[in-house]
Amino acid sequence: MGRAAVLFGAAASLAGCSVPSQIAGFKSPAMDPSSPVYQDVMSATRHPGPYPQFSDIPKIPTDIRPVSAWAQAVASIKHDKAGLDASVAALPAPPADTQAFAANARSAARPPAAADAAPPNTPDQAQAYAQSLRQRATPPPKRKAHKR
Predict the structure, then answer these.
(1) What is the pTM of this model?
(2) Cβ-Cβ contacts under 8 Å for 28 (sequence gap 6 or more)
(3) Which of 1, 22, 23, 37 is surrounded by the fewest CB atoms within 10 Å?
(4) How far apart are CA 118 and CA 116, in angstroms?
(5) Longest dimension (CA), the chain
(6) Which of 147, 114, 107, 115 minimizes the C-alpha distance to 132?
(7) How confident is the model at residue 5 (pLDDT cuts 50, 70, 90)?
(8) CA distances from 146 to 49, 80, 142, 143 (A)
(9) What letters, b where the CB count within 10 A reaches 16 and e where it falls short, cover 39-77?
(10) 1 burial class (0-12, 13-18, 19+ CB within 10 angstroms)?
(11) Residue 26 contacts by C-beta under 8 Å, 6 or more apart in sequence?
């Protein structure tokens, strides 16, 4: 009985590998022979590329950190995260009443000093204002002559 089950299993496996579309009910879509891809597919089917060999597998690199170093780095990052989470938890809660915050900020703001008075209204005031600006102004430094 066991031998028959093994033979039946082996036969079913081989049949499944050879014609999966008939057993599983799958059908491959028909390909249009006039398609530009059709010739490439047929060529690739007839002439498969080179098969890889075990000798193609690269050697194990030696310049990587060991597993213990990775574990230490992960532990360090988790420790840093815990410290950051504690620092964030210690921060005060953000203000929920933004209108009150804005009102306090506006009341704390000070207008600029009165030194920059409004522009004068009369020609005499304008001339006096211009004269005061000229007196406060600092002339640029004199240019030095370049030697050639």
Answers:
(1) 0.31
(2) 21
(3) 1
(4) 7
(5) 124
(6) 115
(7) low
(8) 75, 59, 12, 9
(9) eeeeeeeeeeeeeeeeeeeeeeeeeeeeeeeeeeeeeee
(10) exposed
(11) 20
3-state SS string for the chain: CHHHHHHHHHHHHHHHHHCHHHHHCCCCCCCCCCCHHHHHHHHHHHCCCCCCCHHHCCCCCCCCCCHHHHHHHHHHHHHHHHHHHHHHHHCCCCCCCHHHHHHHHHHHCCCCCCCCCCCCCCHHHHHHHHHHHHHHCCCCCCCCCCCC
CA atoms within 13 A on the CB side of 23: 10
Q: Which two tokens stand for residue 78?
A: 């988790």
> Integer distance in angstroms from the first to the last C-alpha of the chain?
112
